[in-house]
Write the structure tokens for this entry.
Amino acid sequence: MRIQVVLTPPLDDIAGERCLHLELSAPASAPVTALDLVHHLATLDSRMRTALLDAEGRVLPAWRLFLDGRIVLERGEELASVPLREGNEVTLLLGLAGGCRSGGQAQESRLSVDAALGRRAERVRREAQVGVP
């Protein structure tokens, strides 16, 4: 099965490209899962493994995984239960923490990867215009 993987920093730097097209296979009795994909990526380069997995081979909790633009891994949800299908696009995004500058209440929400990156780009543009460090 062919899967497109969109890599964000630091994975894109390690792989040398932003997008990988991978051919994955699994035993006939079980589907290929998102966990299989992450473990496959970890075999490509030791730096990739270090970036993705802890010493016991578990996905580091800072990673967010999006499947066709919708988040499927957030705060340790089990990747082994997320089946992949031919043509899926998987994005791995390192979750970064921040705070509220205005002292407002933080809100939790689920965004598509496009919306999350779009909001980030808009915030960077605004901050550049007003000179926020």
Notes: The helical segments are 11-15, 34-44, 46-52, 113-130. The chain has one domain: 2-97. The beta strands are 2-7, 19-23, 63-67, 70-73, 89-94.
